[in-house]
Each structure stands twice: as C-alpha cells, then as structure tokens.
C-alpha cells in the first residue's frame, strides 16, 4: 500500500473509552458503516448495553473487553487483542483519556500520575501493538485522540495538556513512520466537546460560549473523514483551527500570558 493511502472501509475496529463521549460516538458511527467492533472501557454494564444495541441495530459483531488502561495487566490484555491474528483488528481508535482541573501542587499526585498512565503510556503501548500487527499486514489505521489543549500551556490543567502535547507529537511522527508500511495514523485534536469529561475533571462548562462547543458525534465523524483522507492531524471546527494557527504565530511569552488570563477567566 502506498504511503498515506486512504481507507474508508474497516473490517473490525477496537475503540478505547467506548462507554461514553467521543469513544461511544466512534463506536456508533463505525457500527452504522458495518464495521465489527471491540469496545474497551472500565464500565462493563455500559459496554454490554452498547454492544447489544449495536448488534441488534446494525447486525455487527461487538466484543466487550473490560479494562482499566492504567492497570498494566489489563492493558496487556488489550494489547494482545490488537495483535491477535484471530478476527484481526484493522482500525484502532485510541480514545481513552481524562484529566483533572486545579493547581498542580494541590492535586492528588497519584491521580495525576494515572492521567499520564492512561493518556500517554496506554496510548503508546496500544499504538505499538496495533502498529506492529497492521504493518505486518500492510493495512490499517490508527486514530489517536488528542486535544487542542496540547497546542500550548494550560494552567490549571497542566498535566492533561502536557499529555496531549505528547499524543500530538507522537502521532505526527508515527504518521510518517508507518505510512510507507500501509498504516495511516491520524491525530484528532478536538476542542470543547459535550461529553462527561468536564464533569469528571471538575472543570467549569459555563464560561465558554455555546458556539465553541461541539458534539461528540461531530468530532468522531470529522476524525473518520480525516483518517480516510490520510491526514496526519485533524482539528474539528473552524474556531479550533484558528486557535491552532494563532498559537503557532504568537510569541511564546504572549501565549503564556493569554493562557493564564483564560484560566483565570474560566475560574479554574
């Protein structure tokens, strides 16, 4: 397969963080396209409900894989599934991730470490498992879900933003490395998205105008289109694209001051 070759039909996708939000949206969109699924999350009841609904509604096969990606033993189980030659996976949606809001020194260091474990270490391990298996078959796709938060410093969400900066940089490098081997890697960088993320992160949702928010369905759809087009980085929403460009052309000192002002205005 040529470098960056587009694929718009997937046989079987593994989706992490599939029990809610963007991960669930990916699962629903893929099922509607007749893609069999392996859905991964910690919440077994939610996964089972989702699996039954998708199987009945779309006639696809849905495997439920309960895993805490911060736990290395269950992470290994997911990695092994990605490398299995039985019912092989040809699309990985590396979506699972979370973060906390607050001053870094006031946050629980064990919880902050778990953010790194899931957002960076688990994503990294699963990308390796998928990349090696897919490149051997010279066919596959990986979407690593990052965030516009990774484009610059984010006071009051320092760890989360730093993990997403890693995801973006790592994904762009993999896009170049794995492209010639038949594997398309796309980094999806959404902005404010209406999911359970803000509630879990203890972050305010009141300060940002409604026009800046996107639905999980929209974000997932843009991600799949970007992957099909062979893009390295996909940023949903015109306002998020402008934000990315503004950060690139602005002096770093100005970016830091603006980030600090935004954090204060949002009450973080």
Give a brief outline of the structure:
The protein has one domain (12-265): 3-Layer(aba) Sandwich (Rossmann fold). Helix content is 50%, strand content 14%. It is built from nine helices and nine strands.
Q: Quickly count the helices.
A: 9
Number of domains: 1
Q: What kind of oligomer do you see?
A: single chain
The CATH topology name reads Rossmann fold
- Global structural class: alpha/beta
CATH homolog superfamily = NAD(P)-binding Rossmann-like Domain
- Overall 3D shape: globular
| Beta strands, count | 9
Structural features, described:
By secondary structure, the chain is an alpha/beta fold. It has one domain (12-265): Rossmann fold. Helix content is 50%, strand content 14%. It contains nine helices and nine strands. The protein has helices at 21-32, 44-58, 72-83, 109-137, 158-178, 197-201, 216-228, 238-249, 252-265, and strands at residues 12-16, 36-41, 62-66, 91-94, 140-145, 183-188, 193-194, 214-215, 233-234. The radius of gyration is 18 Å and the shape is globular. It starts with 11 loop residues before the first strand and ends with a helix.
């Amino acid at each position: 397969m040529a470098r960056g070759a587009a694929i718009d039909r997937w046989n079987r996708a593994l989706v992490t963080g599939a029990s809610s939000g963007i991960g669930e949206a990916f699962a629903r969109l893929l099922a509607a396209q007749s893609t069999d699924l392996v859905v991964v999350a910690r919440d077994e009841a939610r996964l089972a409900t989702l699996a039954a609904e998708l199987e009945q509604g779309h006639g696809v096969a849905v495997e439920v894989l309960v895993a805490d990606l911060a736990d290395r033993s269950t992470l290994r189980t997911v990695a092994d599934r990605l490398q299995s030659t039985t019912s092989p996976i040809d699309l990985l949606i590396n979506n699972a991730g979370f973060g906390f809001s607050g001053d870094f020194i006031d946050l629980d260091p064990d919880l902050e470490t778990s953010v790194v474990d899931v957002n960076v270490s688990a994503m990294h391990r699963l990308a390796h498992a998928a990349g090696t298996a897919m490149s051997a078959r010279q066919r596959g796709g990986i979407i690593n879900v990052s965030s516009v938060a990774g484009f610059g410093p984010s006071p009051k969400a320092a760890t989360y933003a730093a993990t997403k900066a890693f995801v973006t940089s790592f994904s762009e490098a993999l896009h170049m490395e794995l492209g010639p081997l038949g594997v398309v890697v796309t980094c999806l960088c959404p902005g404010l998205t209406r999911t359970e993320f803000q509630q879990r992160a203890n972050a305010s949702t009141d300060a940002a105008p409604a026009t800046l928010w996107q639905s999980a369905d929209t974000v997932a759809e843009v991600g799949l289109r970007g992957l099909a087009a062979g893009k390295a980085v996909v940023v949903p929403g015109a306002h998020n694209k402008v934000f990315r460009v503004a950060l690139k052309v602005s002096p770093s000192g100005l970016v830091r001051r603006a980030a600090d002002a935004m954090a204060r205005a949002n009450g973080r």
